[in-house]
Design a protein that fits this description.
With 386 residues, this protein is α+β, with helices and mostly antiparallel strands. The chain is 24% helix and 18% strand. A five-stranded mixed beta barrel has the order 1-2-5-3-4. The longest helix is centred in the middle third of the chain and has 14 residues, at 135-148. The protein is extended, with a radius of gyration of 35 Å.
Amino acid sequence: MSCASCSTSDGTPRGCKSNGTCGTDSCNKLTVFDWLSNMQLPNGQEPCEIVEVRFKNSRKAFFRKEPNLSLSIGDLVATEAKSGHDIGQVTLTGELVRFQMKKKKVSEKSDEILKIYRKASQKDIDIWQEARNREETIQKRAREMAIFLHLEMKISDVEFQGDGSKATFYYTAEKRVDFRQLIKDMAQAFSIRVDMRQVGLRQEASRLGGIGSCGRELCCSTWLTDFRSVSTSAARYQQLSLNPQKLSGQCGKLKCCLNYELDSYRNALKKFPKMETKLQTEKGVGVCQKIDIFKGYLWYAYRGEWMNWHLLTAEQANEIIALNKANKPVASLEDFAHEEKTEAPEKVFENVVGQDSLSRFDLPKKKKGRKKQRPKKKNNNFKKNA
């Protein structure tokens, strides 16, 4: 994601030229629009002294600031850590932080909320940038160590603490992994404190990001925060083919977007009879072949006459099922068949741009002859004057 002022044409950032770290926070992951920024506090209410700080990728946390410390979105701050300090970017301030804390079930008076020491100085930023430049090479070296120790794990990301004294290694594994020897080797090779943190496949995709099959950035890395379980029944409700290659995302799990319209499909299917229910008629047994959920149509065919489909609405199918349950005779499906009105739009072709006739190429081309030059007239007046 990027704001309008960060648009690029030749790879060079325009506008604020921050290339993803501008103060509007619209270039960052999991950004939140502060719709309370222009509103004044009611009388007697104290301003919120807690801000939201984002670190590498999508990791965010709440920190308490001093009352005399003025912060705005985009400021780099030095925050408290378990040992040392960390460097992060302020992504949200003001009253909206209270709503975010309530959404994430974090108490404002909790002792687990750490402090903000100060705004990051140039020295802090230099140390932080130097540590971040080491992450790619250390990640490659850590993967080689894991392969050498025959550990069935994948180290997907490395995040350095702001002071460069600690590195967190994010990994995915299907089984439990004994990485005690790996930690010793990495601590000795890199001269840092090592923290191993296991994440799921969806969390790994949200941290690394990417482009989905829809052509847009992954939802989990831009705005999605809660990862609900997705089952194959969501695809069945939406009449999708159970093709794992099309239904799975970059994380290898079922796509989160299968849940977006699931409630609409469930509500629409409440008025439909079950597809397994057969319609008993005197002419034969009708078997459901296809349904159109939002139009409310069902197509039935007699046994043995699979090529002839009869269109029924959901109300008509329910009426036939009710007659079958009451042991009342139903002559045929044709008595209830619904004719779908499809009015083809009239095609009118007009010469709207003044082009030539389409049949102009049908006529044979005329041979163009050279124009005969007319003889020049002699100026007789000059001879008479002479």
